[in-house]
Amino acid sequence: DSGVTQTPKHLITATGQRVTLRCSPRSGDLSVYWYQQSLDQGLQFLIQYYNGEERAKGNILERFSAQQFPDLHSELNLSSLELGDSALYFCASSVEVASGSEQFFGPGTRLTVL
Amino acid sequence: AQSVTQLDSQVPVFEEAPVELRCNYSSSVSVYLFWYVQYPNQGLQLLLKYLSGSTLVKGINGFEAEFNKSQTSFHLRKPSVHISDTAEYFCAVSGEYGNKLVFGAGTILRVKS
User: Fold this and answer.
1) Preceding amide of A8 cis, omega within 30
2) Bridge partners for B78 per DSSP
3) Alpha-carbon distance B97 to B20, whole Å?
4) pLDDT digits (tens, 9 = 90+) for B22-41
5) Does residue B96 have a pLDDT over 80?
6) Are A34 and A25 in contact (CB under 8 A)?
7) What's B41's DSSP letter?
8) Of B43, B51, B99, the CB nearest to A105
9) 3-state secondary structure of B69
10) How is residue B16 annotated by DSSP?
11) DSSP state, B27?
């Protein structure tokens, strides 16, 4: 158990819908990362937050947004869902933002868009 | 931009045999290198990491990796595998753009009895 929790574990929804994925980092970790794992794209970095502020952005679609709240939990919002958004979404956390800081991964949320 | 190439998509090996999973990276700056393991229906677990110092890095579960700057490689090795090592292994790099991880495509290690 990494100490990072993600809810829900599974999510099934229809095209055009909007969903919210939730992540609680390890106690004491200030930085949260979101990654997407799909069969065609592999594991890709989406976005990073540090203590409530956006720190880095990767290949995140405009239909996707995220935020980190004062209690440090984070939410990833996916809207106007398409079939291709079906994937495993991981949240990770680290104590620092410095390169090389170990990231601890949650169990993931499996999103299926029908 | 940084990138990672895992040369083998699948590696079948018999139990108690040695194994090497290959990883090559590309980067214009100093790198930090990682190996993660993903068991079926689970998240990613860190096996080992190279930040600086000794080029031979030892990790959990008997795995080790060697950082080779001239060959831009970070191959993962285990002298004797177990059935329980069956999983997907990901090599990753960070350092060019903060702490974001750039992953390779993964190598599925299948250990047979």
Assistant:
1) yes
2) B19
3) 29
4) 999 998 777 899 999 999 88
5) no
6) no
7) T
8) B43
9) coil
10) T
11) -
Tell me the mean pLDDT in the region A69-92. 97
Distance in Å, alpha carbon of B97 to nearest chain A alpha carbon = 8
> Closest Cα partner for B21 from B113, B101, B85, B96?
B85
Secondary structure, 3-state, chain A = CCCCEEECCEEEECCCCCEEEEEECCCCCCEEEEEEEECCCEEEEEEEEECCEEEEECCCCCCEEEEECCCCCEEEEECCCCHHHCEEEEEEEECCCCCCCCCEECCCEEEEEC
Of all residues in chain B, the one with the smallest CA distance to A40 is B105
pLDDT of residue B41: 83
CB atoms within 10 A of CB B58: 11
A41-70 residues touching B, CB cutoff 8 A: 42-45, 48, 55-56, 58
Question: Closest by alpha carbon to B88, among A42, A89, A8, A23?
Answer: A42
